[in-house]
Design goal:
alpha+beta; 353 residues; 7% strand
Length: 353
C-alpha cells in the first residue's frame, strides 16, 4: 500500500507539471515572460536565495499584471523616498523624537491629512468609476502611490511600503476581504497594546469593533488568520498569492500557474484563507480540464485531485475563516457617505502643519 501511495503521489506531481506546461503553452509569450519572472523573483526571496523586500515583491506582482509597464525606480523608489524624507523632517520639526512611535504617528498624519509632503492630498478611498467595480487595477499599490487613492488592499500596503523605507515598525493584518495596519503602542497613547489603523477611513479602531464588524472569531485570531500582525516574510508570501489573484483577474482562469503560486505562498503563510481558497479553485480547474481531456472518466489521477481538494477544505476550516454571506457583504460595502460618517468620529493624534 505504501508503494502504491508513493506511485500515486509521483503521478500527481507529473500530472500537475504536465497541466502547468499546457497552461503555459496556451499563453502568449508576454504572459509567460512576465508572470513566470515575477513568480521567480518572489519565490527566490521566500526561499532565501535573494534578500527579502516587500517593495520589490509588490512591484513585480504589479509589473506582471501591467505587462511590464511599470518602472521600479520611478513608480516606487523615488516617490517613497521623497515621502519618507518629508516624514523625517516632520518628526524633527515637531520634536517627536521622544516618542517611541514617532514614525508611526508621522505616517498616520501623512496619510490622513493634507500637508506639503503629500501635495495637500491625503490618501483616500477610491470611489472612482475608471474601471469595473471589482477590477484588479483598484488593488494596485502603484496606483495608490501615484494618485493618493486606493481601497482596503492598496492603501495599507502603500502605508507599509513607506514604513519599510522609514524604518517604522508596523505590520499588515487581515480581516475578511480587508487589510489594515497594526503597530505596538509603545508610548501608551491608546487603551490597547496594539493600535489598529484603518487607512480607508483615517481612523484608529478598537479590536472589539473590528471583530464585531467582520464577524471574526477568537479562534481565527489565535491561529493567526485575522487580526494578527503578519511578519515581513508572510507579507511577501501574500504577494505571491496576490500574483495568482491578479493573474486570474487578467486571464479569467485558474490553472497550474495559480496553483504553483499559492502552494509556495502557503509554505510560508499557511493561515492565509485567501491563498487556500485560490488553491482549491486551482485544483478544481485542473480537475475539470483533465476530465474534459479524458472523456470525464474517473481514475487514480482524479482520486488524488479529490483528496487534495478535500484537504484544502480542512485547511480552510483550520483557519476559522469568516464565511461570507449576503448580509455580511452588504455590511462590509462602504459608500462615500459611510466613509465620511466614520471620519467624523476619528480618534487620532493630529498635528497642525
Amino acid at each position: 500500500m505504501r508503494l502504491r501511495h508513493i506511485i500515486l503521489c509521483f503521478l500527481m506531481v507529473v500530472f500537475v507539471t504536465t497541466i502547468q506546461g499546457k497552461a503555459v503553452q496556451a499563453q502568449d509569450s508576454h504572459e509567460n515572460e512576465y508572470y513566470n519572472q515575477a513568480y521567480s523573483v518572489i519565490a527566490d526571496m521566500l526561499e532565501g536565495r535573494t534578500a527579502l523586500s516587500i517593495r520589490r515583491a509588490v512591484f513585480v506582482a504589479e509589473w506582471a499584471y501591467l505587462d511590464g509597464n511599470l518602472d521600479y525606480e520611478n513608480d516606487f523608489c523615488k516617490p517613497i523616498k521623497k515621502g519618507t524624507e518629508y516624514l523625517k523632517r516632520m518628526i524633527a520639526i515637531n520634536h517627536w523624537e521622544d516618542y517611541k512611535t514617532a514614525k508611526q504617528i508621522a505616517l498616520c498624519n501623512f496619510f490622513f491629512y493634507p500637508c506639503s509632503g503629500n501635495g495637500q492630498q491625503p490618501y483616500e478611498y477610491d470611489f472612482s468609476n475608471e474601471y469595473p467595480k471589482d477590477d484588479w487595477h483598484y488593488q494596485l499599490v502603484s496606483r495608490t502611490i501615484k494618485m493618493h487613492k486606493g481601497q482596503c488592499h492598496s492603501l495599507p500596503w502603500a502605508f507599509k511600503l513607506y514604513a519599510e523605507e522609514l524604518g517604522a515598525n508596523v505590520s499588515l493584518a487581515h480581516a475578511p476581504r480587508h487589510c489594515f495596519i497594526m503597530y505596538k503602542d509603545e508610548d501608551d497613547l491608546f487603551p490597547e497594546d496594539w493600535v489598529n489603523v484603518e487607512i480607508t477611513a483615517h481612523q484608529y479602531q478598537p479590536t472589539w469593533g473590528i471583530k464585531e464588524h467582520f464577524a471574526i472569531s477568537d479562534s481565527a485570531i489565535a491561529v493567526g488568520a485575522y487580526l494578527t500582525p503578519i511578519t515581513d516574510t508572510q507579507a511577501v508570501a501574500c504577494q505571491l498569492a496576490d500574483l495568482a489573484l491578479g493573474y486570474y483577474d487578467k486571464y479569467k482562469r485558474y490553472d497550474g500557474f495559480t496553483l504553483k503560486c499559492v502552494e509556495t505562498s502557503l509554505k510560508f503563510y499557511p493561515m492565509n484563507p485567501n491563498a487556500i481558497i485560490t488553491k482549491g479553485k486551482s485544483l478544481d480547474a485542473i480537475l475539470e480540464q483533465y476530465l474534459e481531456q479524458n472523456g470525464h472518466l474517473r481514475d487514480e489521477y482524479t482520486d488524488v485531485l479529490d483528496i487534495q481538494s478535500k484537504q484544502c477544505m480542512q485547511d480552510l476550516k483550520a483557519t476559522h475563516w469568516t464565511q461570507e454571506t449576503e448580509e455580511l457583504r452588504n455590511k462590509w460595502e462602504q459608500t462615500p457617505e459611510q466613509i465620511e460618517n466614520i471620519r467624523k468620529n476619528i480618534q487620532t493624534k493630529k498635528i497642525e502643519q
